Amino acid sequence: MSIRFDNRVAIVTGAGGGLGRAYALELARRGAKVVVNDLGGSRDGTGHSDAALKVVEEIEAAGGEAMSNGGSVTEYEQMVEMVARAKEKWGGVHILINNAGVLRDKTFVKMEPADFKFVIDVHLNGSANCAKAVWEIMREQAYGRILMTASSSGLYGNFGQANYGAAKLGLAGLTKTLYLEGAKYNIKVNTLAPTAGTRMTEDLFPKEAFDAFSPEKVAPAALYLVSEDAPTNAIIGAGAGVFQAAYVTLTQGKLLTGDELSPEGIAAHWAEITDRTGEMVPQAGGEQSMSILRKLQGQ
Ligand code: NAI
């Protein structure tokens, strides 16, 4: 059965190019009305352009429906206004893909606090701003699909990306609470960690890899994760047509008592504490406390 988005209104942030553009085009092709948001700045977040408008023109030329928005995800009021316009024109907002992003890569020793704050502000606060701007509407509709964009740099680390990595893992964290709070209202929240040849990665990929890792090969994951039958609380990796799942896990662990309840005890039992046999994937924070209680009860 084909996955369609007829009568759905989708907002894609940072959709003036790269991955966001690919998501917006494909959503529109499959029937969604799309708000193409983009500030149109350079890779480090400076400047403005009409990038969003051009993607709207592409969508319309292909027979789709779209509206452009040049607001910045860092400005909550602008996002509230963007959402209000979409609701006014199309009657609701069903899908939010938080995709806008910037880079200010530097090793931590050279990174100024301002560069740290700025990157956190665009990715993490920007995504929270947009989620907050649509949250009430999605609750009222009892329908919402939100996708956060993380990165392997956040999930696993990357030299020179302390600011970006912190923001990106923060987004996986934001997903994990919003999915719990949204469940009752049929709001599903997922995280995508893409790998694609875009201007963000153009100096990292050799030419052939750049082409093999096209944004169009990531788009199927993004679309599935905001579809009617989407899962919730998933962290999915996607690049060049390969799709993976990432998990935040917890080992069974070891109960230490008496003299062993000490740094020396930790050192002595490190192998058991970190042993991955019987590893769990908690679905909420409280499950860690429950697993501790089970351990105390000798289960
Ligand atoms: P891109 O630079 O082509 O796209 C990012 C877009 O966000 C740009 O069009 C930019 O103008 C827009 N933007 C930046 N600040 C904004 C703001 N304040 N408000 C509204 N729009 C703003 O890069 P790409 O690769 O398409 O990145 C999309 C997302 O995927 C980003 O969140 C990025 O961190 C993430 N990502 C990309 C990877 C890759 O391999 N390309 C790897 C991991 C994550």
Automatic annotation (TrEMBL):
<dbReference type="InterPro" id="IPR002347">
    <property type="entry name" value="SDR_fam"/>
</dbReference>
<dbReference type="GO" id="GO:0016491">
    <property type="term" value="F:oxidoreductase activity"/>
</dbReference>
<dbReference type="InterPro" id="IPR051687">
    <property type="entry name" value="Peroxisomal_Beta-Oxidation"/>
</dbReference>
<protein>
    <submittedName>
        <fullName>SDR family NAD(P)-dependent oxidoreductase</fullName>
    </submittedName>
</protein>
<keyword id="KW-0560">Oxidoreductase</keyword>
<dbReference type="InterPro" id="IPR036291">
    <property type="entry name" value="NAD(P)-bd_dom_sf"/>
</dbReference>
<dbReference type="InterPro" id="IPR057326">
    <property type="entry name" value="KR_dom"/>
</dbReference>
<comment type="similarity">
    <text>Belongs to the short-chain dehydrogenases/reductases (SDR) family.</text>
</comment>
<dbReference type="Pfam" id="PF00106">
    <property type="entry name" value="adh_short"/>
</dbReference>
<feature type="domain" description="Ketoreductase">
    <location>
        <begin position="8"/>
        <end position="184"/>
    </location>
</feature>
